[in-house]
Amino acid sequence: MGLETKNKERDTLLTKHRHELMDTIELDLIKDENVLAVFYGGSIGNEETDLYSDIDLRIVVKDEVYEEYRLNKKQRASNWGNVLFFEDFHWANYSTAHYRSFIKVDSFYYKTEHMKPSIWTQKLKIVHDPTGLINGVLTKSATLTYSPTILEIEHWRTKFFAYLHEAYRRVIRKEIYYALHNLDNLRLSMITGWYMEAGIQPNTFGDWAKLEGDRSKLNERQLSLLIQWHSNREQEEILTVMKNIIPEFIQVHKQLCEQYGVDENPEWVKEIIDLVM
After folding, report:
1. How many CB atoms lie within 10 A of CB 230?
2. CA–CA separation, 21 vs 193, rounded Å?
3. What single string gives the DSSP state of each residue in 108-140?
4. For residues 62 and 73, what is the distance between their CA atoms, to the nearest angstrom?
5. Deepest of 22, 27, 78, 207, by most Cβ within 10 A of its Cβ?
6. How far is the C-alpha of 231 from the C-alpha of 216, rounded, in Å?
7. Full DSSP string of 186-219
């Protein structure tokens, strides 16, 4: 039996509303002679949508109008539907519009020079690309693979240590929300380690999108560990969860060091952990 909410009936229509909004967006942008390409990333690009998927919209415009289109990004999004509110930074090349239909659209504006092959552009849904620019990026991106650098591994392990130490300080000070924030970062650090170990590009740190649930790339054991690493606000329980994370960190750390030629330095790692646990 699934979760019942007052919005269940509304939610059943979200896919319909998303498609209607995409139709409106495409009709508006494709007829604009300054728009060189329109495509979708995210769940739409990956063909992994569900009821609650956002519209991750990418728009490439002519260089000479880029600044004008970037500055007018909120007004353009208002043309597509009834906006309830915006998340926006005036200096950024993107804007997020939340529509009254409960659909969210992240619209990004680019110059042609911004469009380069990457791990993140391996799966796209292209709807307008008369010059073949995006198809070219898609083709070149398909050959790319991810491997963490030594610097990435070094940054990952030292940040893990920092979150471990900071969580301990905050528990002792009874700054529980701060402690739980650091505990959450320890969980994210472990997911980052699992992704690096598997050769998967990790999410931007702090982004929990698709790390749990049906679309997760984690295996059953890893998802089970995340569940076990849940904690309430009790000081002793937070410390226990921190302690329970450490064996998995040591194992993943050892594997990454062996795999990519990083100095494992187990005595140094033990000393750092022993300071708090």
Report:
1. 10
2. 38
3. EEE-GGG----GGGSS-EEEE-TTSHHHHHHHH
4. 15
5. 22
6. 21
7. HHHHHHHHHHHHHT-PPPPTT--TTSSSTT--S-
What are the φ and ψ backbone dihedral angles of 96, each rounded to 5 degrees?
-115, 120
Element (H, E) at 17: helix 14-30
d(CA 73, CA 105): 12
Residue 15: enclosing H or E segment and its boundaries? helix 14-30
Closest listed residue to residue 115, CA positions, set 61, 73, 152, 169: 61
- For 126, the token pair is 């292209």
Taking residues 134-147, what's their average pLDDT?
97
**Which positions ≥6 away from 105 have C-beta within 8 Å?**
21, 25, 54, 55, 57, 77, 80, 96, 97, 99
Whether 102 and 17 have beta carbons less than 8 Å apart is answered as: yes
Both tokens assigned to 157 = 């392990």
CB 256 within 8 A of CB 192: no
Distance CA 72, CA 256 (A): 45
> How far apart are alpha carbons 188 and 190 in whole angstroms?
5
